[in-house]
Design a protein that fits this description.
The structure is a single chain. The chain is α+β, with helices and mostly antiparallel strands and 582 residues long. The longest helix is centred in the last third of the chain and has 32 residues. The protein is globular, with a radius of gyration of 35 Å.
Length: 582
């Protein structure tokens, strides 16, 4: 594997981005030629065979203790799938008709399986181990160091506190990515990362300017991105911003920009369960585009409580009416196109390009995935943003359009996942469209529906993974209505994930201290219980035959049970005393 990474992979780089079938065939031939012409490393020899798939670099005679190497990355001419020749034998991918379901209910399609084992003497040494079963017994620190040494050769950053955990992908349920045939992406805040302070701050300014023209008292207010976060809920009835638990019960709340105490929260909500289906009252902050709206609403709630709207709004303005003012002001900023025109003219002020995104999409495409772009943005804005963020990071002669098997703009989500809407094909660079009945691979469209996408791709359900940033539109509806697998981009968690990784050593120390505390606490609890039973009156057992009568037996058993240094004296029925040593 190391030999392939060092010598063969760079030689194939120029052909790796080929898009045409002929170029792909030439790339496969180049791989075979490189392997056939390759000389073995020192201490090894290349076995001779008429079938390149049987070519294995093995230890030379007299050096049988040397480690066998993976020596071939072979694409057979008679098969569409690639065949790996390893030191253990011939390995291929599991095709759809051979796939089964594992114990987690996930399909095995795309998994690698051994189809022909090589018969030879000797032991394959993996990471310095004598046998594969040693993986179960070798110290995990040794195994981690061995695997990281190979990852370093591949240029993969280290995991954990020293790596980049905030760049990771985390699963709430099992996902076999090899079984995914198509991956769809949203654009805004998914493929295109905006500077939240710049983008939402400018939207805030446009909205406030619209309100100022209506006579709303907005003087002195500034955008505060730390005031709200995605996932919170606005209560339009009371002018509150609330946080609920998984059961819908309110746990924390703000009125305007003021934090509410626990007693005040109980007075407002008690045991009320928040139902987001009642859109007339609740507004769920689904996306980062909601930040500017929520900041405006909470700040103006303070102004409303202070009576500053008396001259600006005739009659009594309610919190519901205030929300309508704010939402209309922001709607005008978006519909009139002022904000997007400004971003198109100077994208460098608002967009944060990530060169690794282009590399990731190329990797997915080379792995055989069909890639989709499904966005609510219009074609002009989409083309400008994607060209700015991706074209410079792609190989020469390649543009962002070459990444995707299908592009859909102005998709009108969430209706895109709920209804069959008219489909239009974009046929000119300036966005001229014509109506069509069905979508096809390679097309650029406006509108349509998820069902038309499935028909064009020839796949459906959990063969498709959709990635977006909108909690409801991108994550919920695609799953509920079409059974697509979904992934959510949550930028707000990056700082928390990084902090958790950095604090792992501290948590390990805390875990050890908690284990000690539990041992000592358990002992102290038993000691307290023993003392409590000794001091408090206890129910007495019945006296056995031959025991002292009346109260003497009771005192005798109590004295022995308490183990106190005292002498119990009890009067018997005959008037005598019975002394029992304690």
């Amino acid at each position: 594997a190391w030999q392939y990474v060092r010598d063969v992979q760079p030689a194939l780089a120029s052909s790796k981005f080929a898009r045409e079938p002929a170029a792909a065939t030439a790339a496969a031939a180049a791989r075979r030629q490189l392997w056939r012409a390759k000389t073995a490393p020192e201490g090894h020899y290349v076995s001779k065979s008429t079938d390149p798939a049987d070519t294995i670099v093995s230890p030379a005679p007299g050096l049988e203790g040397a480690q066998p190497l993976v020596t071939q990355f072979e694409a057979r001419e008679d098969e569409d799938r690639e065949t790996f020749v390893t030191a253990e034998g011939l390995v291929q991918e599991v095709e759809e008709h051979d796939a089964e379901f594992d114990y987690l209910g996930e399909t095995t399609e795309g998994n690698l399986h051994l189809v022909q084992r090589l018969k030879r003497d000797g032991m394959v040494q993996v990471f310095g181990l004598q046998a594969l079963s040693d993986i179960l017994t070798v110290p995990v620190e040794h195994l981690a160091a061995a695997t990281q040494s190979v990852l370093d050769e591949l240029g993969v950053p280290q995991r954990g506190p020293a790596g980049s955990p905030e760049r990771g992908v985390y699963c709430s349920r099992t996902l076999n990515l090899r079984a995914i045939k198509a991956i769809g992406y949203d654009m805004d805040y998914t493929l295109i990362h905006y500077d939240v302070n710049a983008w939402e701050g400018r939207a805030y300014e446009y909205g406030m300017e619209s309100l100022r023209q209506q006579g709303v008292p907005v003087e002195g207010l500034v955008f505060d991105p730390e005031l709200v976060i995605r996932g919170l809920i606005m209560d339009k009835e009371y002018g509150n911003l609330i946080k609920v638990d998984r059961f819908g019960l309110v746990k924390r709340a703000m009125h305007g920009t003021r934090m509410m105490g626990w007693q005040e929260i109980r007075q407002f909500y008690g045991r009320e369960v928040v139902n987001l289906r009642h859109e007339g009252r609740w507004v769920f902050l689904n996306t980062l585009f909601s930040v500017s709206e929520a900041v405006m609403y909470m700040q103006l709630t303070d102004r409303l409580d202070a009576g500053a709207f008396s001259s600006a709004a005739p009659g009594q303005l309610t919190y519901q009416g205030l929300y309508r003012l704010v939402s209309k002001a922001l709607y005008r900023a978006h519909v009139e196109g002022k904000l997007k025109r400004e971003i198109i003219q100077a994208p460098e002020r608002f967009v944060q390009p990530d060169p690794e995104m282009a590399r990731t999409l190329l990797d997915q495409k080379e792995a055989g995935k069909m890639l989709l772009l499904i966005t609510n943005s219009d074609y002009e804005y989409t083309a400008r943003m994607m060209a700015f963020a991706y074209d410079s990071a792609l190989p020469a002669g390649m543009t962002w359009r070459d990444l995707f098997d299908m592009v859909i703009v102005m998709a009108r989500k969430p209706e895109f996942f709920s209804y069959n809407m008219p489909l239009y094909e974009v046929v000119t660079p300036d966005g001229l469209m014509r109506p069509v009945l069905a979508a096809r691979l390679g097309g650029l469209y406006c509108g349509g529906s998820a069902r038309q996408v499935e028909a064009a791709l020839g796949v459906e359900g959990d063969d498709i993974l959709y990635v977006g940033d909108h909690i409801y539109t991108d994550a919920a509806l695609a799953k509920i209505n079409f059974r697509w697998r979904t992934a959510l981009i949550i930028r707000e968690l990056e700082a928390e994930v990084a902090a958790l990784a950095a604090g792992r050593p501290h948590r390990e120390v805390l875990s050890q201290l908690m284990a000690r505390k539990e041992l000592l606490g358990d002992l102290l609890n038993h000691l307290r219980l023993a003392r409590q039973r000794a001091v408090a009156p206890q129910p007495q057992p019945a006296a056995p035959a031959g025991a002292p009568s009346d109260g003497c037996w009771s005192s005798w058993t109590s004295a022995l049970g308490l183990h106190w240094s005292r002498t119990a004296t009890t009067s018997t029925g005959a008037g005598a005393t019975c002394r029992v040593p304690g």
